[in-house]
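Thought: the user wants the 3D structure for the chain below. I'll pass the sequence to the structure tool as-is, report back what it returns, then summarize two notable features.
Action: structure_tool
Action Input:
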Amino acid sequence: MAKKNNQEKPTFNSYWIYGLIISILIGMTMFSGDSKWQNLEKTDISNFEKFLLNGDVEEVVVINKNLARVTINQNAIVKSEHNSIKSKNFLGQENIEGPHYQFEVGNLELFQRKLEKAEENGIVFRYEFQTIENRWMDMIISFIPIIIIIAVWIFLMRRMSGSSGGAGSQIFNIGKSKARLFDQNTNVRTSFKDVAGLEGAKEEVQEIVDFLKNPQKYTKLGGEIPKGALLIGLPGTGKTLLAKAVAGEAKVPFFSLSGSDFVEMFVGVGASRVRDLFKQAKDKSPAIIFIDEIDAIGRARGKNNFTGSNDERENTLNQLLTEMDGFDTNTNVIVVAATNRADVLDKALMRAGRFDRQIYVDLPDLNERKEIFQVHLKPLKVTKTLDVDFLAKQTPGFSGADIANVCNESALIAARKSRKSVGKQDFLDAVDRIVGGLEKKNKIISQEEKKTIAFHEAGHATVSWLLKYAAPLVKVTIVPRGQSLGAAWYLPEERLILRTEQMLDEMCAALGGRAAEKIMFNKISTGALSDLEKVTRQARAMVSVYGLNSALGNITYHDSSGQSDYTFTKPYSEKTAQKIDKEISAIIERQYKRACEILKKNKANLIKLAERLLEKEVIFKDDLTTILGKRSFETEKNSNSSTKARKS
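Observation:
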């Protein structure tokens, strides 16, 4: 029978030490002091007084002002009443020498007077008071705070190291990198086929993978492999998904971690982890390092630095800059990072030679949303007649994560209604649920409030239907949803640029609700809060960002780089600020008056639409066509449009 060459070494169990220490402490407590006094016959003070009056007591010793130990004289020990003490010796022998009894004295002064009185009465015995100190216990108690501090420190070291093994080895691993390694032995199933849309970003990332697979293809012409690529985009657009696809496709070691993994409470740990990470990557080159949410350590230095020059985050960033810039041309290590806050990153981190490529991951357009839907519809049981093009049109401005949420929510809605497959209406309900919030049909609303809401939403519908550049409505409801009392879903065109007349028409349609309240009731309500926020934001952008105004002309006060801090200071004078405020107010008031004029001319249709809304609570495009007629300026551009919710 063959013997194993590599036998496992027995692991040392630290709990044996803990048990031994506890046993020693218990033993010291039990046997500290004078051990021969431990098994004395217990009695009480009344029996002691009887022994004292009979002349049986030879000696009384009061220990620590509490416990009295009594020795019986040799003449009295043979009495029958003292037979119980003969077998109470610790060694099992007859207790002849004593002490023989012990009891608690109670009130020490009263007990002492009883002893003095017995002496005065001629009773012969000895008594004394002793104080016995347990020095071992006192020493242990003095060391308890130190023991507690050491125990807490070991516990923290174990928690921060996050790995199994002894406490000592974990302490020395605190400066090691926390990156997860994915290589050919790791089963990473995500590939570029799982990444729908994002064609431009995917092309750039695929080229990075090709750099590492075939470096000679690029270096033989004298070129150098890029040192880093930064993925920039809104949350949910697929930056981390692209990184997962790189890990699945590259077939080279892939180190993945978050920017917060470098942050630690101890000084120097972050920089140490950066050094260890790059050392591991160099040893396994060619390799890829992926740092998600790099803004956790990559923020611009020198801003709001109240901690002085020795700031731990800055030390970590400095080490990262040094490691990225110190690569040799033949190490074949590429850093890929992701962030949705590129405006706060340090300029030194963004320069060529560190992050040579900045890849923008934008929100998907119509065709890309269709591809994303096709990916997320695969695990769902959908109806055969489901139109994916229609779903893509209903979700403008949705990110990949939002579309995944729509698909999941639609499946939950269909299951709630006990359906066997997910249909078109389930997806529409899911979009309404995500954009507008949960329906609250049981919310108590008075008839007067319901009428006001109906005319408010009818005002939006009428104005947007009659304006050329305003987005037409698809559905209007006065059923409370989320925090809104009513909602309207538009069908806007997907535009890359906006003209002045387009922005003004959108503002006019947004103010149609308040204009309808003014015309019908000669009163206004707080229901237009979100409308006012929207138009104020648009008007301010027209004046101070896009230069679409007559007061200031072709000028902008917007810093797209994000490096300027306008929190406490503005890039314009107080006089210019007054002009901006005046122009914003003028733009909004002009569009409000315009909305009022449109509704006055179409007051009869406004009333019909509001009454239909009060009757049905939800109306659609067909109802608007019946009451207001077809839009004379309708174009075919609506084929690339989708619904967008507006809350009131």
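Final Answer: Structure generated. The CA atoms of residues 510 and 533 lie 10 Å apart. The longest helix spans residues 574-601.
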